[in-house]
Amino acid sequence: MRTMKAIILAGGKGRRMFPFDKYWQKAFMPVGNRPNALRLIDMLNRLDINDVSIVSGYKPEWANHAVQGIPGVSVAEASDNLGTVLSGLCSADSPTLILHGDIYIELEDLAQMIETPPPGAAAVALLQSEDSGFRKSDWICAKASAGQIEAFWGHPRPNYVSARSCGVFLLGPQTIPRLTASPPHFKNVPSGGMPPDGFWVENCLQAALDDGLMVAARYTGRPFVDMDYPWDYLEANTLCASAGENGVVMDDSCQISEDVVFKGGCIVGRGTVIRNHAIIGENCIIGTDYVIEDHCKIAAGSVIGNGCRIGFSAEVGGVLMDRTSAIHGCELYGVIGAAVDVGAGTVSASLRFDDAETNPLAEGKRCSHPLAKMVYVGDHSRTGVNSILLPGARMGANSALGPGVVLDGKLEHGTIVTQKQDLVKRDWGPDKYGW
To answer: Is-contact 233 17, C-beta < 8 A?
Structure first.
């Protein structure tokens, strides 16, 4: 039995995750219908790591609620000096695993991080190879070779670095003092770079490198996602669904009629009803107490939450969170938040009529991602009859679209949009025909 301790960071406000920043702490957003931090805890337990601390800042109620009753898991509230909090939680005589709570990682990649560090290594960081195709200027990256990290860089130019930092670290006792003694902003940025004040483990490890300590590199070999933006969240759920069962797995309490078509592997939660010629694409995860009926279609790789209803020729795909309703000819692909009421005939588009790229602006940054062209609807919102969401539309929580509204771009939280109709009235009757 390992005695290693793990710390999950779950304190960020997640503003770039709009429209899901209103109600969620992003480390607890459901991936595969399970809060992501709990997925990480499950993996840690499978690796015999049962002493886990969650450092929570923004919406700490999420952490307190989600982990209650889980043995060996505690919650520490973040302060203005996160390094001091981490320093107090880390083990003084053995390595401590630190990982961000908003990452999608697979068990095999996490397992390699708890292996014995190379001789002389004071810490280990998990990296993603540049062959993965990410844009280096979007991330905290590293220059590494021969299994060792030479430097960490924040949002660098491509020639500075060779890999992306994945937010998973194994810190030995030698590195702990750097948690409280690193610069207040990221040291290594390109000329003209503008680092904000804040705490980053990579910056602490850069201080260790500056002091002559060795930081080893290990690399992901499987899909990995850092969930900063809503399209990252959609990607993580799609990967989670694709990693599921090959066959159809369901609870005995499910009711599945013979005319239902399953095109591939699917996990169906208890109490779910699927009937009347519904079509379920391959690699889907469907939650509990769900009703899917009346010639509707679920796209491949979708994750459908608990207590939802899809029916009457609706076509949906991506992520539908708990208690969402989509019926009567809806066509949606993206992330639809919790308790959203999708009006009849609501449709979304994923391709612009002029074939232009969809590169939305999120918290001041122009983003490029294949899934950014999908639609993202915040929790507790609703759409009217025949409303249209254009590629990349993001609709805030507690918002509404009136009948026939076309939404393009971003709609802020707590906003209703209706269209004003100009009516022309004329006489109309049998005189038109010469009577």
So the answer is: yes
